[in-house]
Design a protein that fits this description.
The complex is a heterotrimer of chains A (390), B (299) and C (220).
Chain A lengths: L1 H16 L9 H29 L2 E6 L2 E6 L3 H19 L2 H15 L5 E2 L15 E8 L2 E9 L4 H16 L5 H6 L13 H10 L4 H7 L3 H8 L8 H5 L5 H7 L3 H9 L3 H8 L4 H10 L11 H15 L3 H7 L5 H9 L3 H14 L9 H19 L6
Antiparallel strand pairs in A: 1-2, 3-4, 4-5
Chain B lengths: L2 E13 L2 E11 L3 E5 L6 H8 L7 E6 L2 E2 L4 H5 L2 E4 L11 H11 L5 H11 L12 H14 L4 E5 L7 H18 L2 E6 L2 H7 L2 E6 L2 E7 H7 E7 L11 E7 L4 E7 L6 H6 L3 E7 L2 H13 L5
Parallel strand pairs in B: 3-8, 3-9, 6-7, 7-8
Antiparallel strand pairs in B: 1-2, 1-4, 4-5, 9-10, 11-13, 11-14, 12-13
Helix pairs in contact in B: 4-5, 5-6
Chain C lengths: L1 H31 L12 H36 L3 H4 L5 H33 L7 E2 L1 H24 L2 H23 L7 H11 L15 E2 L1
Antiparallel strand pairs in C: 1-2
Classes of the chains: A mainly alpha (390), B alpha/beta (299), C mainly alpha (220).
């Protein structure tokens, strides 16, 4: 057993050293290196699993119908994390949450996938193997769910968050197609951080897309347009942008490939005419070169997720069931079914929540001032004490 | 007459290898008190204790009627202090340093300060970091005297100064003391210098005050006797025998304290013959005293 | 007395204060420069907001740098002479420390005022997009309080006796060595010691938490 541990540690150390070798110039060499690394990791995971099985250190942590396979050392953390994640799922999904757990397990077994912690033992060998992360991998319905890297030492919050992501992705699979696509195949169940709404406010207020900015300013029609709750507009630029946004679009719209394609088709001078000299005709010519895919739904993922969350919360416990059963062809119709109120009402609620979350002004708050003064007073008191020097 | 400085059973251990032990010391008001002792004897530490720069572990310290360290700020307002090493802010000029000092002392005499500056040949715009050691010493003395202190505490004020500067500094000090009747505590290991100006003397050695008396008593009280034929064991002597050593031939040399001419008869009664009584200068007395204290003799 | 203390500290910290004032004038100009070209891509709300966020970091760095230099210069002359002169002055130690700190606070305040004034002028001249607002006063207050904290920490450290300074330096060196050893033995991420220190210092209740907040001259 000791030999196995050393072997596992060596494998892990080698795999960690691989990135350094990836400075090979050609794509082929890189590809080979990646394949080698993937094979190495796969072998390593199999060995570690075998070792875990043989050593009797693997346990199942259960919460309702959910099961998480882990090691005895990590079990306490995993138990807390799993309970937290499942409780969150029950809050949003109701009884659906437990059905989901069973379905996930079944599907995973069928797919020979796993939801488990790759077992890395701290201090397993005398040479103290490198432990940088534990990974959480899962396959569901044939799709890769996640490959999250978790920092060591394993933290219940991180683990719960990753488990939650798995559940959110699993929960999105049986949603009607328009909403599932609109949500990027993930049914969001909680705000990602306490600063979620203020951050969203900032992001939307400074959005490059005029229609989003108008939405934050209170224009409900603009919101509907920005969320694209109905159908995609034919002329996306005209529907979403102001003329003053054009130089910005020309400068940044589209991903790398599209921009490369665009640059091939235009001269540097023309681009400068638009972005530096602000000539609108030049901007229009450049924008015309951009493929339609360069103009995605103006409202960012976080904004759409928050709207879906509000719709589910408004609809109550059975909201998810109604959403699944909805026969509507647009996101607006499906959200209406989930929330049991018109989509515009959901938007109004969302807008109210967003505007109420406007970040407080940068003027220091009382807690900041008090904390600063306390710290300063402590420093002065420390400096003035006793006869320290001569 | 009250005492300007009074220390009672003061104890302080700043380091493992050195301690001030049971220090009781008195500087009468108006006295020029020479605080003698070899390097490392505890003079500077004692001065820092009585200025409240360090806190004693035990004992009582009173300076100008103020308990130290509690009343140190009030006492310091009436004290002019010249430390052993230059302590002024190097990047300031002479006039900036004077202005800075003035702000803390209500008694600052601007005219006197200016007069001393001229007398000492210091230029206002000179930076302190560029002053020679003598000039820095003069500036420290200028600052101390211009506050019109009731007590001057001078820690090796002329150490390392050339004779001309030393004379200037001492002359300014004597002028001030004579005009103000101030008390002076001057610490030094330069015994000759103390002899010229001090009327009280305290001798410190190894953290202990080994003697404290008026200067005239210190100078006249210690004699060296040349004695012949004294027995090895003596009966109770009417004077204090500080030390006894071999001299030329059969003669012995005795260091004694409290000698009076009529005590020669006691020597005769011991079967000894007194050949000579020699007066010692302050330095010899000081050395004799230290030798005695280090060999455990009575003082 | 305070004026005398202030005068000496001004003399010692003058170069860095003047440089701080200059930078306080340059940062908002640099951050809002793009608003001068409304039609160019530089005037693009996200990029404008990004440049303001970068300016926020610059303000933080400026506050930190000025605070550290002022703190060092405050005690340097006293430290070199083991504080003998300061202790011989007829004033309680706490009063002297308070005056030294107060003078430092005034000098840092001068830079904070410059931050507020120049920030105010720049944001008044610049045509800001709707829904973005200038907060020069808030920024100046944040700058001042934020700079006072590192100033206070270094001030307290240097005012301590050599034993404490040695202790802090040795403790810091030990942490660095422990971290290096942990890394050498394979603990590459978030070693417990460093994480604990980072959380203690920069965490929400840490003394330097202010540096994680946003120092935005212009915000939503």
């Amino acid at each position: 057993m000791s030999d196995r541990r050393v072997l596992a540690a060596l494998l892990l150390a080698c795999s960690a050293a691989l990135p350094a070798q990836q400075g090979i110039a050609t794509m082929e060499a890189r590809s080979v290196a990646l394949r080698t690394r993937a094979d190495s990791l796969s072998r390593q995971v199999k060995r570690m699993e075998a070792f875990s099985r043989d050593s009797g250190l693997v346990v199942d942590v259960r919460e309702g119908s959910y099961r998480l396979r882990t090691t005895t050392t990590l079990a306490p953390v995993a138990t807390v994390a799993l309970r937290r994640a499942v409780q969150e799922a029950r809050r949003v999904l109701g009884p659906e949450a437990d059905t989901l757990g069973s379905r996930m397990r079944l599907a995973l077994r069928e797919q020979h996938g796993q939801i488990g912690l790759t077992v890395l033992f701290p201090g397993a060998t005398a040479m103290r193997q490198r432990i940088s992360s534990a990974s959480l991998d899962g396959l569901f319905d044939g799709g890769q769910l996640t490959g999250a890297g978790l920092d060591w030492p394993l933290d219940a919050d991180d683990l719960a968050s990753n488990l939650m992501m798995l559940i959110e992705r699993s929960a999105a699979f049986r949603l009607p197609a328009p909403t599932a696509t609109w949500l990027n195949h993930r049914l969001p169940m909680r705000d990602e951080s306490p600063e979620f709404w203020p951050d969203l406010y900032r992001a939307l207020t400074t959005s490059p897309v005029a229609v989003v900015r108008r939405c934050v300013a209170g224009d409900r029609l603009a919101c509907r347009n920005a969320f694209v709750l109905d159908t995609m507009p034919t002329d996306r630029v005209a529907a979403w942008y102001d003329v003053s946004d054009y130089p910005g679009i020309a400068g940044t719209a589209g991903d790398g490939m599209q921009r490369n394609g665009m640059y091939l088709a235009m001269s540097v001078d023309e681009r400068d005419d638009c972005t530096v000299r602000g000539q609108l005709d030049a901007c229009r010519r450049i924008i015309a070169l951009l493929p339609v895919e360069a103009f995605r739904i103006p409202m960012p993922d976080a904004g759409r997720a928050s709207l879906a969350r509000i719709a589910l919360a408004t609809g109550g416990v059975n909201a998810i069931g109604r959403l699944r059963a909805s026969g509507g062809s647009t996101v607006a119709q499906q959200l209406t079914a989930a929330a049991n109120v018109p989509a515009d009402s959901v938007i109004a609620l969302w807008q109210a929540r967003l505007i109420a979350s406007r970040p407080s002004s940068p003027l220091p708050g009382p807690s900041f001032v008090l904390a600063s003064l306390a710290c300063i007073a402590a420093c002065i008191a420390w400096s003035a004490r006793g006869k320290p020097w001569v | 007459m009250s005492d300007a400085i009074a220390l009672k059973h003061v104890a302080y251990r700043p380091a493992k290898e050195f301690a001030i032990r049971d220090l009781t010391m008195t500087v009468p008001t108006g006295a020029i008190y020479g605080f003698l002792g070899p390097n490392g004897s505890g003079k500077t530490t004692t001065i820092k204790l009585l200025l409240g720069m360090q806190d004693a572990d035990d004992g009582l310290i009173e300076v100008l009627g103020h308990q130290i360290p509690q009343g140190a700020p009030k006492a310091l307002a009436r004290i002019g202090y010249v430390p052993e090493k230059a302590h002024l802010y190097p990047s300031l000029t002479v006039s900036e340093m004077m202005d800075h000092h003035k702000a803390f002392f209500r008694t600052w005499d601007a005219a006197r300060g200016e007069e001393l500056r001229r007398q000492f040949g210091l230029r206002s715009e000179q930076k302190i970091e560029r002053l020679s050691k003598g000039e820095a010493g003069k500036l420290m003395m200028l600052l101390a005297l211009s506050t019109q202190p009731d007590l001057l505490v001078l820690d090796e004020p002329t150490d390392g100064l050339d004779p001309v500067v030393r004379r200037d500094v001492l002359s300014a000090l004597v002028d001030y003391v004579s005009s103000r009747n101030a008390t002076v505590l001057v610490s030094s290991h330069l015994v000759h210098e103390q002899e010229r100006i001090c009327d009280w003397v305290g001798v410190m050695d190894g953290g202990v005050l080994v003697a404290e008396m008026p200067m005239n008593m210190f100078r006249s009280g210690i004699k060296r006797l040349r004695v012949r034929g004294a027995p090895p064991v003596l009966s109770a002597a009417p004077f204090t025998l500080l030390g006894r050593s071999g001299g030329f031939g059969p003669d012995e040399e005795w260091g004694v304290r409290g000698w009076q001419p009529e005590m020669a008869s006691w020597l005769a009664a011991q079967g000894a013959e007194l050949h000579e009584v020699m007066d010692l200068d302050l330095e010899e007395s000081f050395v004799e005293l230290l030798k005695t204290s280090r060999t455990g003799g009575t003082t | 007395m305070f004026r005398a203390v202030l005068a000496t500290q001004w003399k010692w910290a003058r170069p860095v204060i003047l440089l701080g004032v200059l930078l306080a004038g340059w940062i908002p100009v640099e951050a809002l420069r793009s608003t001068a070209y409304r039609t160019a891509d530089t005037y693009y709300i996200p990029s404008l907001y990004n440049s303001i966020a970068m300016a926020s970091t610059m303000y933080q760095l400026l506050a930190l740098a000025v605070a550290l230099v002022v703190a060092f210069s405050t005690w340097q002359a006293d430290s070199l002479r083991q504080h003998v002169y300061a202790l011989s002055l007829p004033i309680a130690r706490w009063q002297f420390v308070l005056m030294r700190f107060g003078a430092g606070a005034v000098l840092l305040g001068a830079v904070a005022v410059a931050v507020g004034v120049f920030g105010g002028i720049a944001s008044a001249i610049a045509p800001l997009p709707a829904m973005l607002h200038a907060y020069p006063v808030g920024l100046a207050v944040r700058f001042w309080l934020g700079s006072l904290i590192p100033f206070g920490l270094i001030f307290a450290l240097i005012a301590s006796n050599p034993t404490w300074i040695r202790f802090v330096v040795v403790a810091f060196a030990t942490i660095v060595v422990v971290d290096l050893l942990l890394r050498a033995f394979g603990f590459t991420q978030n070693t417990i010691v460093m994480q604990w220190i980072a959380t203690s210092v920069f965490g929400p209740s840490g003394p330097l938490a202010a540096f994680l907040s946003r120092w935005m001259l212009v915000d939503v």
